[in-house]
Amino acid sequence: IRCFSPTPMRRVCAAPRRIAVQKPPRRTPVARVSFAGLAAALFGRQGRPEEAMPTSEPTKEGNVVVQIEELKDIARRAIQTYGYRGNEVDDILDVLMYAQLRGNNQGIIKVTTNAIARPADAMPMEIEHETQVSARINGKKQPGMVVLKRATELAIKKAQRHGVGIVGTNHTFTSTGALGYYAERVANDGFIALVFAQSPEYVAPYGSKEPVFGTNPIGIAIPTAEGPIVMDMATSAYAYFGLLEARTAGRSIPDNVAYDSEGNPTTDPVKALEGAIRVFDRSYKGSNLALMVEMLAGPLVGAATQDKSTSKNWGNLVCAIDPKLLGTEDFESKARQVAQRVKNAEKLPGVEEILLPGERGSRSAQQHIESGILPIEQKLFNDLTKLAAKFVPEEVGNGATENNGKEEKKPHYKAATALLHPTFKTEDPFNASSPPLYQTATFGQPSSTTFLKYDYTRSGNPTRDVLEMHMAELEGADRAFAFTSGMAAVTAIARLAGVGEKIVTGNDIYGGTSRLLSQVVPKQGVVVENVDMTDLVAVEKAITDNTRVVLIESPTNPRMEITDIRKVCEIAHRMGAIVAVDNSIMTAVFQLPINLGADISMSSATKFIGGHSDITGGILAVKGEKLASQIYFHQNAEGTGLAPFDCWLSARGIKTMSVRMERQNYNAMRIAEYLERHPLVKQVNFPGLTSHPQHKLHCSQATGCGSVLSFITGDVDVSRHLVDNTKLFKITVSFGNVNSLISMPCFMSHASIPAEVRAARGLPDDLVRIAAGIEDVDDLLDDLDAAFKGAAKMKGMSLDTMSSNGRVSAREQELMRRIMELEQKIANLSSSSN
């Protein structure tokens, strides 16, 4: 007998807290596995015929012993043959190894029996109903383990915020695995866990030979002072995957746990699979328990109630409950006292120890983890290695490949290159240089019961996918979503807050955002608080327990104030709030909010992404699948997805964003320097100027300063004359166009904000906003200079001593200002004496 020598390992599954290990169990006779054969299975290398696959010497038990890390590596590759990648692989492997380490037949057998296969028409899961304490997730045929893990995380978060979290799932296509895994995750956070799972028709009610129930397991976990007590119990006498495991190993199952198709007891797993499994206690009690699980994890969560096997719509329910809800102090210590009473109860003759629920499995897992090795049935291991050998690592850009089943880091291109060279590939049989436009509302399906990835453009369109995937990549996000306008995107963010929750935002924000948050959102029962986002003390005070969303603009529009995005994210996340950043002025070319800690980066596609003022659109780039699912739900439910042609125009605009924005940034800098020296300008707001109070902060979180700036003249008439008399600057709202734009925000983009509110927020009526285009900057400066001279003449001032480019010294500027003030006073006195 030979075992691999134990090696240190990292813990990858949610193992329980350490339990004192009793006398180790007797070792099971094992077979020998050759490293050469293992390498062939893992890497597909060609060797001698006898080394093409792992070889073993049959033993009575038919087991082999492998290193846990090696088993995980083989399993990881085998899982990837089903098309899973990244976090999905990790999630599935975690659940399977949790079961395998405990001798639970919800483990690796699921990989080799096709039980984790995902259908081709699976769609991203989405939250189809949500309240403060509950949610229902439509799995959209995604793997049960991935969906239930997301449900568990959501239940925990709701319990952390509100004391209880109840999350149901439906339309999960594959097994959810060992429920103890999810229950233990909940209890590790200090909450009581109740987990129920509905499964296909394998189990017959008491007195029947017809399978009606699933194996319908129950997971319960209680947090105690020494770690969770976990019960994971099927309501059937034998698990379905236990039958598959026995069939794979060619061994019998225990007596009296299953029927054949005629209703006769059988120990043959093949016949049992054709018949039905019995309930665990072979009585009405077990049958009733299975029925209760069927109700809780079936109709309650929107899962199938008839013919579950055909509909593939199985349900799950996760409940996380804070013991403090009942006013019980020190629950965990008291729960441990109860457990200890059970452990210390007087034992019957021959009984060495009374075990708590899950204790045997947890102890076994701990022993395997400490030894670094794990026995596994030889045929199962052989099947797993054969499957793993089929995995061919995918090439990743610049010749990099998958390594140990983990996705290699994508090539790090600079912005200008990334805009032109996305790493994903579009599905186009003709390999067109420009992604094709799918200008259609609907998509045909293969049959009445078979559905492809796309069916209706409101829910998804290939052209929109190209834009969304590219934006997610540019922003460093997990997913991105394209909306019909920037305001539609902001509205989707506001939808994340429920009744009684709060949105905290700045006091210098875009007028449309201000109108939405002040006049629309409060009608939905959501509290909105405006705060000076440059004052971190005020921000921290505003973000309270009921704050759901913190919405930032940086730079702000139009005063160009800078928010410390990193620090605000830290404050918000400590309170459990989501942070969204309106990044429209910077875009991903100059600033990456998600890299700074934000959960959502919003950009108005109307601006720099489109670049030519010929579309309206908005983009939300989102971190995390759970949050992304919520955003997608609102985009789909409210029909706010961007139309295909606008998506196509936006995708085209992305390619030239860098060259446009760099030129606009340069032009804006030159204009800001000109304005800063001009005697008719009292203040210039542009973060590229060293005189800007937050210049250093902005440079620490952005690589450019953008093309938007504002300034005040102290005189509404002067400002109006400037705006009305420039020739190259188009008078219009918005920014990001290739043409230069000019406006007076208080009369245009921010006119919806009441005058008294504008005044309180420091938005004077004489404020002028410029959005620099890509024209020759000297022409733009000449145009502004002519308009300023006209304004000075209108006011009876003389600017003849000023050069055409406005370059005068600070001393000259101050002297000229005093002269103009004196001239104005003399003129006033003269007119009054007349």
Structural class call reads alpha/beta
Head-to-tail CA distance between termini: 119 Å
Low-confidence stretches: 1-60, 395-408, 801-808
Task: Count all strands and give the number.
Answer: 26
Shape assignment: elongated
What do the pLDDT scores average to? 83
What does this structure look like?
- With 834 residues, this protein is an alpha/beta fold.
- The protein is built from 29 helices and 26 strands.
- The strands form 6 sheets. It has a 7-stranded mixed beta sheet, with helices on both faces. Strands 15-21-20-19-18-16-17 form a 7-stranded mixed beta sheet, with helices on both faces.
- It starts with 29 loop residues before the first strand and ends with a helix.
- Mean pLDDT is 83; it is low at 1-60, 395-408 and 801-808.
Characteristic terms for this protein:
single chain; about 850 residues; alpha/beta; 7-stranded mixed beta sheet; 26 strands; about 40% helix; elongated
Topology summary:
Elements: E1 30-31, H1 35-43, E2 63-67, H2 68-80, H3 87-101, H4 109-112, E3 126-130, E4 134-138, H5 144-162, E5 164-172, H6 179-188, E6 192-197, E7 218-222, E8 229-233, H7 240-249, E9 258-259, H8 269-274, E10 276-277, H9 284-296, H10 308-311, E11 314-321, H11 331-343, H12 359-371, E12 373-377, H13 378-389, E13 395-396, E14 400-401, H14 415-420, H15 462-475, E15 479-483, H16 486-494, E16 502-506, H17 511-520, E17 527-531, H18 536-542, E18 547-553, H19 565-574, E19 578-582, H20 587-590, E20 600-604, H21 605-609, E21 618-622, H22 625-637, H23 644-654, H24 657-677, E22 683-685, H25 695-701, E23 708-712, H26 716-725, E24 730-731, E25 741-743, H27 755-760, E26 768-771, H28 777-794, H29 810-833
Parallel strand pairs: 1-2, 4-5, 16-17, 16-18, 18-19, 19-20, 24-25
Antiparallel strand pairs: 2-12, 3-4, 5-11, 6-7, 6-11, 7-8, 9-10, 13-14, 15-21, 20-21, 22-23, 23-26, 25-26
